[in-house]
């Protein structure tokens, strides 16, 4: 997911992330993961995600980290 810069900091990312996590839990899935832009790592960490490995580039977008969270049922 990505939120346009002018809408960042308004809670939209949290709404989308929470909805997605609840949806995935209903599918009996224990782990969620994403490729997070370097600038979004703190957002995901605040939502209890952890990084795996080193940063990697995605062409024309920038550095990303693989991040994951174990979902509680």
UniProtKB/TrEMBL annotation:
The keyword Transferase applies. Keywords: Transferase. The keyword Transcription regulation does not apply. Pfam families: Acetyltransf_7 (PF13508). Signal peptide: none annotated. Coiled coil: none annotated. One of its GO terms (molecular function) is acyltransferase activity, transferring groups other than amino-acyl groups. Residues 1-72 form the N-acetyltransferase domain. PROSITE patterns: GNAT (PS51186). Transmembrane segments: none annotated. This is Acetyltransferase (GNAT) domain-containing protein. It comes from Flaviramulus basaltis.
């Amino acid at each position: 997911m990505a939120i346009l810069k002018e809408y960042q900091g308004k809670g939209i990312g949290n709404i989308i992330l929470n909805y997605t996590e609840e949806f995935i839990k209903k599918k009996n899935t224990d782990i969620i993961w994403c490729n997070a832009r370097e600038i979004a790592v703190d957002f995901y960490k605040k939502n209890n995600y952890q990084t795996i490995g080193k940063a990697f580039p995605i062409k024309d977008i920038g550095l990303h980290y693989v991040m994951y969270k174990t979902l509680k049922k």
